[in-house]
Amino acid sequence: MRYEADMAIFHAILSAGSFSGAAANLGLTHSAVSKRITALEGRLGVQLLIRSTRHLRLTNAGELYAAETRDILARLTAVETEVAEGAGTVRGRIRVTASNALGRMHVVPALFAFMQRYPEVEVDLTLTDTVVDIVQEGMDLAIRSASLQDSRLVARKLAANRRMACASPVYLAERGTPQRPEDMHNHACLRLNLAGSFNQWGLASASGQRVQLGAGFSCNSLETLHAACRQGHGIAWLPLFLVKQDIEDNVLLPVLEAYRDATCDTSISIVRPHMHYVPNRLRVLTDFIVDWFDRLAF
């Protein structure tokens, strides 16, 4: 019986988008892959894939087979990995994603420390300020500083993600320090131009209305906004993990702290897809990251 192998080849084709791509990824010949799919379709008595020289698509039966076997294959792979890892052994590849600022400052050092302790682990890290669908992209873990709304994911809190308005002493000396949230419309405000709740500054006005922010610079990089804020170009809404040292050194000063709405704070979490079997390497790395963030004072 070669059910598992045929199932794996079938999903490799879907992942690669072609027979030749799957063959290359699996280290097989194109003809070997084609023969296994033909054998699978023969055993099932249905056509799973419609292939032409340029296109590849699933039949209705193929869509059903793909949906029903995806979790089965994942569980088999996880169990085999767990057995192969053995008791006390941590090895294998782990795909991780995190935002740029959080990743460079805190996640990257943690990952290198982890790899030093477990040299048989290979980490593949993607840094991006775009929220990645880790299920769709095949990621193992994500470190996020936003609210978790996807029921397909399992999260563990790493730290509070407190954010605040801050500016450089140079900017405040030139433009003055805002005394009320309503004053913000007269100031240069540095904002992320990404979709989502990033620009919902948690400042509560006396009237309860949304604070109107003044015109200023915007970009898609939190680190760039941080640099612009340090250089005196305006007021920014930044996370404490990014500005803590600057505030302690008086490079940046908090603004309107008395009006900061703590209910707008989120959490920094480590997130993984829901799975029946969690590989040992993911459990160990998750615990390591949790301990690492416990030692960070922000």
Automatic annotation (TrEMBL):
InterPro entries: LysR-type_TF_proteobact-type (IPR058163), LysR_HTH_N (IPR000847), LysR_subst-bd (IPR005119), WH-like_DNA-bd_sf (IPR036388), WH_DNA-bd_sf (IPR036390). Signal peptide: none annotated. The keyword Lipid metabolism does not apply. Residues 1-59 form the HTH lysR-type domain. The keyword Transcription regulation applies. PROSITE patterns: HTH_LYSR. Gene3D superfamilies: 3.40.190.290, Winged helix-like DNA-binding domain superfamily/Winged helix DNA-binding domain (1.10.10.10). It comes from the Bacteria. Keywords: DNA-binding, Transcription, Transcription regulation. Belongs to the LysR transcriptional regulatory family. PANTHER family: HTH-TYPE TRANSCRIPTIONAL ACTIVATOR TTDR-RELATED, HTH-TYPE TRANSCRIPTIONAL REGULATOR. This is LysR family transcriptional regulator. It comes from Kushneria aurantia.
